[in-house]
Write a structure and sequence with these properties.
The structure holds two protein chains of two kinds. By secondary structure, chain A is mostly helical. In chain A, 80% of the residues lie in helices and 0% in strands. The radius of gyration of chain A is 19 Å and the shape is globular. In chain B, strand 9 and strand 10 form a beta hairpin. In chain B, helix 3 crosses helix 4, helix 4 packs across helix 5 and helix 5 packs parallel to helix 6. Chain B is elongated. Classes of the chains: A mainly alpha, B alpha/beta. At the A-B interface, helix 1 and helix 5 of A face helix 2 and helix 3 of B.
Chain lengths: 242, 309
């Protein structure tokens, strides 16, 4: 698994993809947080990082499928997947290696935004007047959200040999899981049913975490969703022999 | 038994790719797996390497059932897939070390084996290039190097020479021959000459069934092979016809005859004795072998049983 992980990571860093993803993510988030007046923290007047945490997931919905779209699709197209699967590596180590490599890239892209936290802390009046637990919770939420997005992306990539199909499929699924279910909940008249559907979506749990309250139920929700998606990916890979 | 296949059947949906084939290959043997495109060669190899699961039947490598313990089989098998898939943006060394790594070699060992393989497969001049920048012949060498990197006991090569130019073809064949000394090799091809250049035994498969599994020279001597003889003095066809084992005599020029023997009979001895007895000079005595193409098309021709409508 470690070999696959480093091979994937090298793949990101040897090609433009890794730098593109980090660059685009940071430029987009930076502009939205500091420059564009509609969302700028400076114009808003409150020292909080809501822009990053509310817009960030939408940027990730497009960037993560772009990272993961090649993971299996390209190997399928090249035929190297067949080669890999005839080597003494388990399907799990392939799936996990690829998933963790994408996670590592996303996490590294998120790290520079910690500077925002420092800046806002200094800008607060008095200095340090910022909701640190809320921000920490949001960061954790964002990481967990990314893990689900990466798992969706890797699964989407395992479904097809076409990277574009993989990208569109994954982005669509990410969007559905993130806000789609939340929106769908409005279709139900009964409050209970609406709540169930809402709770199946990620936005509900992500919002809860960004309040700074880290509930195990939310963490378990994200981790199990990731797990189920990775299990699905593994099943798709073994499906070749059915 | 290095490779053993028993009643192997594979359906892709309703399509029968393999129809209960059985064969076995001894340790150290090199065997050609021959058949037209779509005959089931690659399917058999994919099952042997654990990529596909058979619908029914048993495939075993080194006595281990592939379906039961694929990881152990994979550790002992080197596989060069059809079309030789490689990571084009990796360097030769990087790729070989990666291949060694996923075969479970520690990184120091992986580097050492990669160096050895570069030497063995004649990649020294190209070892610092990206795989994408290599010519097809060199890529094929990289593919072979990767299949050999963990020193497997069994090598499975799926069309190792397809798409190469004649010089590369000779080089790759030589390489396969060199490495096959201490390994069991099963390679597929649709060119009979290739089998001839590399080994003695051939398994011919057609439409999912084995149609021949024999030594190549026996196949050549099979049905249709004739003896061409030329005498210095006139000899009549009737005289030849009376010799034991002779089935049919055709005239093939002045004092030349093409003699068809009864199946399984070697009549060369009888002919020389006849010439000595009758005091005729025997100018030529040649076994006319079946042409390779003729054997191939005879074994693999699709029978025209269904009328075209």
């Amino acid at each position: 698994m470690i070999r696959i992980f480093f091979k994937e990571l090298n793949g990101f860093l040897d090609s433009l993809i890794g730098y593109m993803v980090m660059g685009v993510f940071l430029v987009a988030i930076g502009l939205l947080t500091w420059v564009f007046p509609d969302t700028s923290v400076l114009d808003y007047g409150y020292a909080d990082m809501d822009t990053l945490f509310s817009v960030g997931p939408f940027v990730l919905i497009f960037l993560i499928p772009a990272i993961t779209m090649r993971s299996f699709a390209e190997e399928k197209k090249l035929g190297t997947l067949e080669w890999l699967l005839t080597k003494p590596v388990t399907e799990w180590s392939l799936v996990l290696g690829k998933f963790l490599a994408s996670m590592a890239l996303v996490t590294v892209s998120l790290l520079p935004t910690l500077i925002y936290y420092y800046s806002l802390r200094q800008l607060g009046n008095p200095i340090g007047n910022i909701d640190t637990p809320g921000i920490a919770g949001s960061y954790l939420g964002m990481i967990l959200l990314s893990s689900v997005f990466c798992a969706v992306g890797v699964m989407g990539s395992a479904l097809t040999a076409n990277q574009i199909v993989s990208f569109i499929l994954s982005a669509f699924l990410c969007l559905t899981f993130y806000t789609g279910l939340d929106t769908m909940a409005q279709l139900f008249s009964s409050g209970q049913q609406a709540l169930w559907v809402k709770q199946m979506g990620m936005l509900y749990h992500y919002d809860a975490m960004s309040k700074g309250l880290i509930d195990t139920r939310d963490v378990v929700y994200f981790l199990s969703l990731t797990g189920v998606l990775l299990l699905g990916t593994r099943t798709i890979l073994s499906g070749r022999s059915w | 038994m290095a490779i053993e296949v028993k009643d192997l059947t594979k359906y892709y949906g309703v399509q029968h790719a393999l129809d209960g084939i059985s064969f076995s290959i001894n340790k150290g043997e090199i065997v050609g797996f021959l058949g037209p495109n779509g005959a089931g060669k690659s399917t058999t190899m994919k099952i042997l390497t654990g990529y596909l699961a058979p619908t029914s039947g048993v495939a075993a490598v080194e006595g281990i059932n592939v379906s039961e313990d694929p990881q152990r089989v994979k550790r002992q098998t080197g596989y060069l897939p059809e079309h030789n898939p490689l990571y084009h943006d990796m360097y030769v060394h990087e790729y070989l070390e990666f291949a060694a790594g996923i075969c479970g070699l520690a990184s120091g060992m992986a580097r050492k084996r990669a160096d050895e393989m570069v030497g063995l497969c004649g990649l020294s001049l190209e070892q610092n290039k990206k795989i994408g920048a290599l010519s097809k012949g060199y890529r094929q060498r990289v593919g072979l190097a990767q299949a050999l990197i963990h020193n497997p006991k069994v090598l499975i090569l799926d069309e190792p020479t397809s798409g190469l130019d004649p010089n590369q073809l000779v080089e790759i064949r030589k390489l396969i021959k060199d490495i096959s000394r201490e390994k069991t090799v099963l390679f597929s091809t649709h060119i009979l000459q290739e089998v001839e250049a590399l080994c003695d035994r051939v398994i011919v498969i057609n439409r999912g069934a084995i149609v021949a599994d024999d030594l190549l020279h026996k196949l050549r001597l099979g049905k249709g092979g004739a003896l061409l003889v030329e005498f210095g003095q006139p000899v009549s066809a009737e005289e030849l016809q009376t010799l034991p084992g002779v089935e049919r005599v055709e005239s093939a020029g002045v004092n030349r005859y093409r003699i068809h023997a009864a199946p399984g009979q070697d009549i060369r001895g009888e002919l020389t004795k006849f010439a000595a007895r009758e005091n005729k000079a025997l100018l030529e005595l040649r076994q006319e072998e079946n042409s390779l193409e003729a054997i191939f098309s005879r074994l693999t021709q699709v029978p025209l049983t269904e009328p075209a409508s």
